[in-house]
Amino acid sequence: xxxxxxxxxxxxxxxxxxxxxxxxxxxxxxxxxxxxxxxxxxxxxxxxxxxxxxxxxxxxxxxxxxxxxxxxxxxxxxxxxxxxxxxxxxxxxxxxxxxxxxxxxxxxxxxxxxxxxxxxxxxxxxxxxxxxxxxxxxxxxxxxxxxxxxxxxxxxxxxxxxxxxxxxxxxxxxxxxxxxxxxxxxxxxxxxxxxxxxxxxxxxxxxxxxxxxxxxxxxxxxxxxxxxxxxxxxxxxxxxxxxxxxxxxxxxxxxxxxxxxxxxxxxxxxxxxxxxxxxxxxxxxxxxxxxxxxxxxxxxxxxxxxxxxxxxxxxxxxxxxxxx
Length: 324
Known about the structure:
The chain has 324 residues and is mainly alpha-helical. The protein is 77% helix and 0% strand.
């Protein structure tokens, strides 16, 4: 539908309607992890918005561009764009756009290994969501990132308390999958595998038909982690293969290296590791780094840490340094 709308407007002069379609299209592409196309669409939307003096749409496109650049390692540039997008949303009085900047900023900050900054962004956004009666919409997303940041800094009880403020059993679709991630991470770190399995089961069911990186890949990685923790190597390999199959269809810098790391860990746990698989996964890691470089950036702190850990484990299995 978005492609058709963009095509219909392609030959027409700049207008606020054309800027709106292109801004929405850029956001759609970003969510689908089609980042190269998303960046081009976001820049086109920015140009259209500025030429037609569509200030709110300029902020929306700026938020998309900032998220993309930040996620591809151009951190200072990306965060500045996200900050500026938030200021435009405040100026325009557009709550949805403002909350989008809070969530996207927290996403980039978490991947950059800046959980304290992500917590600050969430603390800024949640009171506003309460005042505006949006806790069951935008407040849910901000809470998820606040909980993920709390997990990252080891505040597990705080993370669960944040999530427990919402009725987990009543959550549906993408919201249920989003909330399952930090809950699962807490239980896995604590070694409570039964609770981890109970948390993940409904999310896996919901994510079965999701073929995007944010939900489809991340949930399958958690399933692989649980399978590894419970000694089900065949299941772990299957989940990793499914995650990487989705990742291969998009520009995935957020989750692919985690899947590769889990895959190498699965081979390390096997009595007879498949060294061909290990080599293939380390080659994928180099491809992920090359993707970030093609955007003029580099892997952020958390993806870089997973990549280094995976390479070290691969080196132990193969008896030498993993290929760079």
